[in-house]
Amino acid sequence: MDNKNQHYSSEFPDVKVKIHTISESLRRHLYIFKTVTGVFSFRKMDLGTKIFIEHMSIPEEPSVMLDLGCGYGPIGIVLGYESPESIVYLIDINNHAIWCAKENVKINLMNNRNVHTLSGNYFEPIVTKHLKFDGIYMNPPLRQGRKEFLKLVHSINSYLKSKGSFQFVIRKKMGA
């Protein structure tokens, strides 16, 4: 992977950190997100994430959900807001992203103790927890290539409950 694109999918992006704020109305609610350089789409929310959030299916009953590769956390935070009785995990390898996600959980979900942020590569932080999810949600880092994405897709079923769903957004031109 070249240096230009490695930053947001790296554990410790090599960037000078500047904090930004994004305000977005999603599913009829206004959210405030802190972002920093070195995190995917740090200046404004990307269109794919916006469209995905507006159309993702959220279980009506309390569930266990995962925002995989959460970035600064918009997908997982909306899941936590829309389904406050559910347990939501947000995972990202990028430590700057996890810092943002933690801050954004505090800002947008002040009293929700059911939303957890974990640092690690894909499922690594939860392997020992033996968790199964009702829903796994993702805006995958497609700059890593189709081969990596397909490898991930093939492992998803191991982490889903029998009636669980894997929902994701992709742009065709990004290699999927």
Describe what this molecule looks like in 3D:
The chain has 176 residues and is of the alpha/beta class. The protein has one domain (3-174): Vaccinia Virus protein VP39 (Rossmann fold, 3-Layer(aba) Sandwich). The chain is built from five helices and seven strands; from the N terminus they run αββαβαβαββαβ. The chain has helices at residues 3-6, 47-55, 74-82, 95-108, 146-156, and strands spanning 19-26, 29-36, 64-68, 87-92, 115-119, 133-138, 160-168. It has a five-stranded parallel sheet, covered by helices on one side. Strands 1-2 form a two-stranded antiparallel sheet. Helix 5 links the parallel strand 6 (133-138) and strand 7.
